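Reopening this ticket.

The earlier resolution said the output was attached, but the attachment link was broken on my side. Pasting everything inline this time so it's all in one place.
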Amino acid sequence: MKIYLSGPITGVANYRENFRRAKEALTRAGYTQIINPAELCEVLPESIASWEDYLEICLNLLDKAVVLLPGWDMSRGVRRELRYAIAKDKLIFEYETTMER
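Inline output:
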């Protein structure tokens, strides 16, 4: 199953680390198809892509399931991803930080 990580990025200094830890924990749990949108920021510079560009790309990557990272409810982008996932009848899970152990 493809899993899309959805969490706050804008204004979060350590967002890459948050996404990396979640991806590693889910990989240890046996999931192999994990989409980490924080990695998109590494290959597509903000100087050529707007916030809306990123969101459009991310919505297209959201395929089967969404895992909401801590702080998701404070992020405008995540709330839009969540509304999209609900409208498209995707599986939605909240990430448990206890999985990182």
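Reporter confirms the inline version is readable. The mean pLDDT is 90. The beta strands are 2-6, 33-35, 65-68, 91-94.
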